[in-house]
Structure formats: structure tokens, C-alpha cells
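Is this the right way to post C-alpha cells for a design question? Let me know if I should format differently. Anyway, here goes:
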């Protein structure tokens, strides 16, 4: 069964998806069809749940399950909406290889499935995620785009989704705006709610502790329209330990993202002036 938090994020994702569709003149509902498939897919749910079990119970890390993957999806859709309203094209649009709707579909798959490899383990999990996600991507695309004429579109969306999945740790070189946004959206999920369960379950020291304690000090992450660059990320924290999460996780991901030039980043402890990073 889905948790109340999962259901809540599902609703927010579906609302964002509809807003993105309404923005475009084509009103292409393919992203909504794909999202409906993903949120109702039993295999997706089972893999996400077990990813969380391995991450939290076995390894002592933060949430890498259904809520995290949905949150990353919500984050990346927010960024795509901001870019569209700023009249900035995605890589598929710039290259005339696909539409804005295709970019939406690709980042949905990438964000929703990017931590599938945590069912195997932490090391190289981005590569295992690509292997485990591929059959799901093919199955869903063949259902929502079943015609022979849709073959090229399926190939483009699948390829972009896999780039986003394999590139989400910043360990492999990626080149598209879409994949770069996945990197950043993943890094933005670091609020204290993500660390709540591992903080309660694991009381003995372990290798993942700094991530838990730093994430536990992050109060809020806002994704907004920027003044100097299109996307503005603001991180509010309750303690200085949160700067570890900013500097060792989020900033590292932004710095190796092809979308770096589209983002400005601010962070600060409550009651103090925000520090500008980018």
C-alpha cells in the first residue's frame, strides 16, 4: 500500500503534469498517460519499496524509495516549468530530435526510476538502475505509444531517460539539459523528512551518519524563478551541519550538470543571511 506521503506527492506530480501540458500549444497528454502508468505500476512500487529497505535498513542511508523518487520527479517538473516559461529550450527541442512533451516524459521516467539500482547496493547503483529500469520503460512506452509510427519517439524518450538515470550521481559524463536537471533535482531532495526514518532506526555509528545528520538540519528547499538565472534554489537550514549537504552533495551535482548555467543557489541558517554559491 502507498503511504499518505506517497499519495500526497503523487497528487502534486499529477497537478504539475497537467499544468505543463496546458502551457504548451500542442496539449499533448502523453506525459499524463506515462505518469498514470508509473504511479499505478505494481513492479515500480515493489522495486521502490525494496530500494528503500536496502538503503535504510541494510546500509543506514537516507530514503531512496518511493517518496524520494517521487520528490525528485516533482522537483524536475518544477524546473522544466520554469525553463519553459523563460522560453529556454530543452536539448531535445534544440536538437530538433523531440518535443517539449518528450523531454517531460524522459525526465519522468528518469526521476521515477533513478534509484532502482539501490536494490542491489550503493556502489554503481546508477548503472544497475539503468539495467533494471529499461524493461519498465519499454513496457510503458509500448503501451502508451503502440503504433509503428511511434518507434522513433519511443527511442528518443527511452534514450534520454537512461541518460538521466545513469548520470544522476555525477560519476558519468552527461550532455543534455534534461539529464542535467535530474542531477540537480536529486540533490534538492535533502530536507529533514528524508532522514527521519534512518535517524529513528539506526543509533549506532555508521558510514552514512553525516548524510543523516546534515539532511536532518535542512528545513526547506525552494525551487523558484531566479533573477540572474532562470532557476533559483534556496536552502533553509536549522544548523551549520546542513552546509555539508549543500557543499558535498547539491553543489557537487550542480557543478557537473550540463544545466549548471541555468541555476543560482543560495543557502543559509535560519536567522542569518543567505550565502550565495552560484
Amino acid at each position: 500500500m502507498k503511504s499518505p506521503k506517497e499519495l500526497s506527492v503523487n497528487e502534486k506530480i499529477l497537478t504539475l503534469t497537467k499544468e505543463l501540458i496546458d502551457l504548451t500549444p500542442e496539449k499533448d497528454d502523453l506525459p499524463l498517460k506515462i505518469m498514470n502508468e508509473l504511479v499505478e505500476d505494481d513492479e515500480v512500487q515493489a522495486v521502490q519499496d525494496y530500494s528503500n529497505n536496502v538503503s535504510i535498513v541494510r546500509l543506514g542511508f537516507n530514503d531512496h524509495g518511493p517518496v524520494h523518487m517521487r520528490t525528485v520527479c516533482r522537483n524536475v517538473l518544477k524546473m522544466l516549468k520554469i525553463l519553459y516559461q523563460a522560453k529556454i529550450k530543452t536539448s531535445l527541442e534544440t536538437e530538433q530530435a523531440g518535443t517539449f512533451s518528450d523531454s517531460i516524459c524522459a525526465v519522468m521516467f528518469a526521476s521515477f526510476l533513478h534509484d532502482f539500482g539501490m536494490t542491489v547496493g550503493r556502489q554503481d547503483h546508477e548503472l544497475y538502475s539503468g539495467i533494471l529500469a529499461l524493461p519498465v520503460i519499454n513496457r510503458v512506452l509500448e503501451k502508451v505509444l503502440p503504433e509503428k509510427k511511434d518507434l522513433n519517439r519511443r527511442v528518443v524518450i527511452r534514450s534520454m531517460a537512461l541518460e538521466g538515470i545513469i548520470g544522476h550521481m555525477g560519476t558519468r559524463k552527461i550532455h543534455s539539459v534534461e539529464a542535467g536537471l535530474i542531477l540537480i533535482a536529486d540533490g534538492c531532495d535533502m530536507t529533514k523528512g528524508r532522514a527521519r526514518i534512518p535517524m529513528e532506526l539506526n543509533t549506532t555509528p555508521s558510514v552514512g551518519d553525516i548524510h543523516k545528520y546534515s539532511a536532518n538540519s535542512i528545513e526547506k528547499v525552494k525551487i523558484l524563478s531566479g533573477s540572474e538565472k532562470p532557476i533559483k534554489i534556496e536552502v533553509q537550514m536549522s544548523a551549520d551541519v546542513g552546509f555539508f549537504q549543500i557543499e558535498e552533495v547539491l553543489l557537487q551535482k550542480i557543478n557537473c550538470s550540463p544545466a549548471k548555467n541555468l541555476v543560482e543557489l543560495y543557502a543559509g541558517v535560519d536567522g542569518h543571511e543567505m550565502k550565495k554559491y552560484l
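Format looks fine. Someone answered above. Worth noting: The longest strand covers residues 218-225. Confidence is low (pLDDT under 50) at residues 195-200.
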